[in-house]
Design goal:
diacylglycerol O-acyltransferase activity, 490 residues, 13 helices, EC 2.3.1.20, six-stranded mixed beta sheet, alpha+beta, glycerol metabolism, single chain, 38% helix, Chloramphenicol Acetyltransferase
Amino acid sequence: MRQLSALDVQFLNAESATTTGHVGGLSVLDPSTAPGGLLTVEDIRALIAKRLHLAGPLHWRLLEVPLNLDHPYWVEDADFDLEYHVREIALPAPGNEQQLAEQVARIAARPLDRRRPLWEAYLIQGLEHGRVALYTKVHHAAIDGVSGAELLGVLMDLTPEPRHVDPPGSRQVEGPPPRLSLLATAARRLALQPVKIALSVPKMLPHLDELPGVARIPGAATLAKATGKLARAARLGPGRHEAERPRLVPPHTPFNGPITQHRRFAYGSLPLDEVKRIKNAFGYTVNDVVMALCASALHRWLAEHQAIPATPLVTLVPLSVRTPEQAGSAGNQISVLVAPLPVHIADPRARLDEVVSAMAVAKQRYRPLPASWLVDFSAMLPAALGALSARALMKFAGATSPLVNLVVSNVPGVQMPLYTAGAKLLGHYPVSAITDASGGLNITVMSYDGKLDFGIVVCRELVPDVWNLIDHLRDGLDELGKLADEKGAG
């Protein structure tokens, strides 16, 4: 039994009639390398069954604390039903990318059953060119981007022949502790909460306005500014100063507003070698080029909708703070960076340079933050109040304006072919989440075997033409490639 962290619980608290808290990925597979040239749902179930003991979140279920007085726990599911979690469906002919994405969007829009381990997998047959797909979704309360990639790695192999995995040792599944025991533990934690807050406040106050939306609370920005000056003076010494933090205000866009429960999804790949060629030509990083590609794609999309704002978009960029010692552990070890995305700049070279400059400033602002600041902020409120505050914040953002315009996430992956039950992995496209607070658009990219695999999730009503964004990413790569050619010729 292990307790969820305050940050893990926020992904549970964020769920509503229009918001789901799970993330996942779409794996497109070539079954010709599998035994008999086929990949069946029985093959997937057999693979997971052999490796289930290596993937804790797949056999954990939630145990709620009575009256929500404390954060819930993960406990072993004594009635685990693999057949329930791994399902099979098929697409009608011709089984193209758009049909696959539409099916994934429909499954992604459905919440997970909290009475069971919080994941599902769907083997999708009937794709054109003889391919198959495996869509998995796991609740964000159990994994972040890096731990999700590690969980995926448990089910992958480096060759078509699955590696040997030692079977689990004999163990008994313990039943949940008595309710009185849970209540007693919750009472002790509540009694210590004032001490925890007192210890956290001095460390957190200077960074209060870094949390999206908090700056809108009357007095919060002023308090953060004052305490931040004191903290910077203590850190830098007398006579030295840092630039004032600019306040980032999300402009209005067509993809910001109250989201519905419906989703659309689109996916596509870009060659990593070309991205690296561009970053080398300008002396930037791969992530700089990824952000520039997103800025280019959104500039084109907003131009099509006659909605280019006068100011940059405000982008939430998740960052992993997982240490080497935490490798292989579940849960969330993340922080967030808030950065402007200059989609209002028409000139592609000027837009690229501004993306890099804005990211550098954002990283400089982020550097003094404690690695655990997001976890510490989440832990400052008691469990019951944390749930109420999360829902209130989502409702407030949906009724007024978003805390940020969108989320852009870049998850590192492996640069070699992988196989699932013998079938070669052709691409793995992230399928993330959207909320009222973070906007109706999420762009997540994962590198794999010489490619950048993009997955874009949107609110169906706010962004009905999501596939245009995939086309615009490709146009943006061509645009940056020409700039790199010109720089090389110069």
